[in-house]
Amino acid sequence: MQILKLGAIAALAVLLATSAEASVTFTSSPFDTYTPLGQTVVEDFDSPIAPGYSFSGGYLEDTFIQNFAAPPAGDTTFYDSVTSYTSATFTSSQALASASVYLGSLDAYNDIAFLDNGQFVAGFSGGQLVANPDGDQFSPLTNRTFDFTFTGQPVNQIVFAATGNSFEFDNIAVAAVPQASAWAFMIGGVGLIGGLGLRRRLKRRHNLAASA
C-alpha cells in the first residue's frame, strides 16, 4: 500500500478524533516488556519481515535524530517512524485476531488505524490511547506496549500516521484468526477426544456389569 496522501491523513485524523469503534479494544503496559500471550513478533525492523506480512512507509532509524525521531524508551535496535503528514502501513495476508506494538513518545497528533483491505474499521489518536500524551521520550505513560483485540469486522492492516513530528514504533506482534481448515482440525480433535472418553466409559460399565 502506498503512503497515504496528505488529504487522506488529515481526514483520518478528523475521523479518529471522533471515533473509536467498539470492534477494537486495547490494553497497555509500560515499555516493551513482553509479547502478549498467543502472539508472535513478525516485524521488529531488524530482521526480514515474517512471510505473509508486508510493511511500507516510514523511516527506518536506530538512534536519536534531533527534531526528527527518537527511539522508544529503552529501544536500542532499529525502529520505524512517521513524520508530519506521512504514514506507514503494516499488512497481513490473513485476518488478525489481535496485534500488539511498542509505541514510543506518544503525542496527541499520533494516530493508529485498523483497516480491512483498505476499509477503515477503527482507530485511536494519541489522546485516546493515553491521558495527556506529551511526547515524553522516557515516561512509562507515553512509551507503552499496546495490545489490540479485534472482533466483528476483520482487520488485516495497521496504519501509523501523524499530523505532527513524529510517531515512533517497534516490535509488531500478531495472532491470526484461525483458518477454516484449522478450526475443522481443532473440532475434529475435540470430537476424537470425546469419542475416546465415551468408549472408555462404556467399556468400564461393561466390565463392571460382567463382574457383577
Structure characterization notes:
The chain is of the alpha+beta class and 212 residues long. It has 2 domains: 6-177, Jelly Rolls (Sandwich); 179-212. The protein is built from 3 helices and 12 strands, in the order αβββββββββαβββα. It has helices at residues 6-18, 126-129, 180-211, and strands at residues 24-30, 40-43, 53-57, 59-61, 79-82, 86-92, 96-104, 110-116, 119-125, 144-150, 157-162, 167-176. The strands form 2 sheets. Strands 1, 2, 4, 5, 7, 10 and 12 form a 7-stranded antiparallel sheet that branches. The protein has a 5-stranded antiparallel sheet with strand order 3-6-11-8-9. Strand 8 (110-116) and strand 9 (119-125) form a beta hairpin. It is globular and about 85 Å long. Mean pLDDT is 86; it is low at 17-22 and 181-186.
